[in-house]
């Protein structure tokens, strides 16, 4: 059967692969070549679309090697960060997306230079318009933002401020591409990657590994991605209660909270339209819960052509005012689990409850066992995500064997869909996420004790998409 006729999910993975340019390493060797081979052998066969961060092309054949191997496995469509030269005093952004399904359009932005070692990398975001069915597309954005090299204790931290500026640019880039590529109201949008925002709250030792609370920077990130700029209330993490039909129509679904949570306040992860827009004008109601919602702005009206764009070199051209579009992004991992899972600096838990750093090979000594959540899949569904147009919510109960931080790898899953696009059937499709997970990609059973124990210092994040006729 073709991809359009069977019920197999479309499988997407995002991972920071930690393959830095030659000469940059944590220990005597980062096992870059061996880890790339492991990805080729054990990871690529399980997915339809894979996005990488920190897979640098600068002064190394490793990215080209992975691309050739991916193409041999049926990933015939590839797009990555533009390569740089020493003349530019920078290296490439390290982003790459490989797909079994056709990539019909691409674009990219480069953020202004970051701080510290990030100053050297041309960090930004890449966009791919992927034909998941004939005439029906997935709009996929992959990004890697400014890193912090010590714990962020305040939103005034220099690296946190840079990230918020990058998220503002990313929000504008998403809106611009939705306009330029004429995104249909039923087509989903995904932003994924290493966003370098630690969503977890670190005020207890040992940490509660299933803590449902959200850090202030996480709330600021979600507000910025949804609204273009975070308001004071959203940044402070104050609870937001939608108070009107239009707000409910445009805001994201509330994340599922577990029955038992910490005794400390759980900071709300929901942001309504009223908290997004820097004015008091009425908000134009959306026809569905998933459409982009423009504000009634006298400067820009409802015309998305007034969105500020970004030049390829990272400079902004503000010839037109911003239309404050609301992008009702949902954090699929948090929604699935009800807490922020560790994706960097994981630990093992002994019988007496003591935590021990899991990785001692790739992770920097100061970050071992730091229990951070840095990697995300953010989702805006289409109008046909559910039969009645309501926002779908992932059910953790549907996957009792869910992959978690303690699940060994290689990650076994149903076979990927075929690369061909279905040429028959109705032109309208319903796409919904049915499972989102953290994918550790541990390698303990495949390598020697003195070798690497996981494929990267980061875990991957993945989502399975169900695609059916509407």
From TrEMBL:
InterPro entries, A to Z: Endo/exonu/phosph_ase_sf, Sph/SMPD2-like, Sphingomyelinase/PLipase_C
GO molecular function term, any single one: sphingomyelin phosphodiesterase activity
Region (Disordered): 277-316
EC number: 3.1.4.12
Alphabetically ordered keywords of this record: Hydrolase
Bias-annotated ranges (Basic and acidic residues): 303-316
The name this protein goes by in its record: sphingomyelin phosphodiesterase
